[in-house]
């Protein structure tokens, strides 16, 4: 009994220190989210962060945050090896594969594609440049979601809450401006974000090319490498024209056809 006072003092002391530590963590996280949503540090009274922007920023922070800005990684997707390197001056993506005994490497640097075959640069037609640029961009885009959701051409809207398999999710809808929105600027995306963790557990998109399509993806087997989260996805197909918002209900009812698995393998941090 006589130790109660000293024990209580010790507990109180620990509690104060712990609260201070947690407050610092929350402040740091809040500052990072604000930095992502407002990279130019515009005064908040002239550039308020709406709910969609806030959710985008929080989701990016949960998946990797500022680490994306200088990320240099390699990974394997299906039968090819990829790298991506982000810097203050831009980005460099590469993909290396083999065909008919030859090594083919595409290098995409700040939007300009170069193809090398067995170490020699080869010329591609404008059509092929667009084709292979989009293919490389697409793989890195999905592998590093949600990093690119902060790009200037992205339009985000908050679509409320829903429930998938007994869990609540915030709904984030994404569209793109034609300017700087890429060749697929007419595509639409939807993300279902866990309200506490801010992790994307489900996503969907529609596209217009090749007669159009609708896809729904369920994340699994997450791995965090060098502070950045990478996720694999079960890729489902839905009939063309299906509204993205209806896909979770169709998924729960077992009415979506599994099309493929999107697996990012052998993820490694690369040296400078």
From TrEMBL:
<protein>
    <submittedName>
        <fullName>DUF6503 family protein</fullName>
    </submittedName>
</protein>
<feature type="compositionally biased region" description="Polar residues">
    <location>
        <begin position="27"/>
        <end position="44"/>
    </location>
</feature>
<dbReference type="Pfam" id="PF20113">
    <property type="entry name" value="DUF6503"/>
</dbReference>
<feature type="region of interest" description="Disordered">
    <location>
        <begin position="21"/>
        <end position="45"/>
    </location>
</feature>
<dbReference type="InterPro" id="IPR045444">
    <property type="entry name" value="DUF6503"/>
</dbReference>
């Amino acid at each position: 009994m006589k130790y109660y006072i000293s024990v209580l003092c010790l507990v109180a002391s620990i509690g104060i220190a712990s609260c201070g530590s947690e407050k610092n963590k929350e402040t740091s996280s809040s500052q990072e989210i604000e930095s992502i949503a407002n990279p130019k540090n515009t005064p908040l009274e002239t550039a308020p962060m709406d709910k969609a922007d806030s959710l985008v920023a929080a989701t990016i922070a949960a998946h990797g945050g500022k680490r994306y800005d200088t990320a240099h990684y390699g990974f394997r997707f299906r039968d090819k090896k990829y790298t991506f390197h982000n810097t203050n001056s831009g980005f460099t993506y590469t993909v290396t594969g083999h065909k008919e005994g030859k090594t083919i490497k595409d290098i995409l640097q700040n939007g300009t594609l170069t193809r090398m075959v067995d170490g020699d640069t080869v010329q591609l037609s404008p059509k092929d440049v667009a084709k292979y640029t989009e293919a490389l961009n697409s793989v890195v885009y999905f592998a590093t979601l949600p990093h690119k959701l902060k790009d200037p051409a992205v339009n985000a809207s908050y679509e409320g809450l829903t429930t998938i398999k007994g869990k609540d999710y915030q709904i984030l809808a994404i569209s793109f401006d034609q300017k700087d929105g890429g060749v697929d600027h007419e595509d639409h995306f939807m993300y279902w974000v866990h309200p506490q963790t801010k992790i994307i557990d489900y996503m969907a998109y529609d596209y217009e090319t090749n007669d159009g399509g609708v896809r729904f993806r369920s994340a699994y087997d997450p791995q965090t490498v060098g502070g950045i989260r990478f996720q694999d996805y079960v890729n489902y197909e839905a009939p063309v024209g299906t509204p993205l918002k209806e896909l979770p209900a169709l998924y729960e009812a077992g009415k979506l056809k599994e099309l493929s698995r999107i697996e990012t393998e052998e993820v490694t941090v690369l040296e400078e």
